[in-house]
Amino acid sequence: MGKRSRKTKPSENSKTKFIIIGISVAIIVAGIAAISMNPDSIKADNSRSTHLSLDTRNGSPVLGDTSSPVTIVEFGDYQCPFCKRWNETIKPAIEKNLIETGKASMIFVDFPIIGPDSITVHAGSYCAAEQELYWKYHDFVYTSQGHENDGWASPNNLKTIVLGIDGLDADSFNECLDSKKYEQRVNENKKIASDAGARSTPSFIIIAPDGTAEMIIGAQPYGTFKAVIDEMTK
User: Fold this and answer.
1) Fewer CB atoms < 10 Å away: N or C end of the chain?
2) How many domains would you assign to the chain?
3) How many whole angstroms separate alpha carbon 7 and alpha carbon 5?
């Protein structure tokens, strides 16, 4: 992936980082019962290896430096409460300590599995991306999350929610959302996530400089990610 340059702030204007690979993955699996009880206390309870292919070309803009040696790929659903909690409590530490320091970059791949409104809210992320506001939208939507399938992410409600995003042109966003032009992209990403081995949200694949990777299942704590990335880059 080449020599990395260090940035003080991740940019969503970076060139897209394409990952189209066949990789052997060590999967860190956390029990579903533990996820339901307390996502922050999840511990890996077993691991196994599998082989998969992964194409991130239709995922998010890269968060961080595209030449970072490690790539974190997240599979998530904006209606998932554990994704929201991870985004608000764990991702800030990952951004500060791993992404902003140039150790890793991040790509989000849609895995809308909770209900029809998940397709809508994920499609909206690419409407925001047209205005170079993907990651602002990403974080803002999580802070605005309601209950699963209660209508908070319906098209009409989403159009109201995005009024709180600084710099977003609501008229352009609404026109884009109504066109449904990104729904196929979201559905394609859902298939990519499933083919890559994701079965629940959030799930992650951490890709090392040599192309080997580990999958982390569940809203695991910062220390789990740091340990994997430290091992990959030592």
Assistant:
1) C
2) 1
3) 7
Q: Angle, nearest 10°, between helix axes 116-129 and 170-179?
A: 130
Q: What is the pTM of this model?
A: 0.82
3-state class (DSSP) for residue 194: helix
Residue 185 located in a structural domain: yes
Query: Has residue 1 been placed in a domain?
Result: no
Query: For residue 206, what are the domain limits?
Result: 20-107+114-233
Cα–Cα nearest to 190, from 83, 112, 118:
112
pLDDT tens across the length of the chain (234 residues): 333 323 323 334 334 455 544 444 544 443 322 232 233 322 333 334 445 568 899 999 999 999 999 999 999 999 999 999 999 999 999 999 999 999 999 999 999 999 999 999 999 999 999 999 999 999 999 999 999 999 999 999 999 999 999 999 999 999 999 999 999 999 999 999 999 999 999 999 999 998 889 999 999 999 999 999 999 999
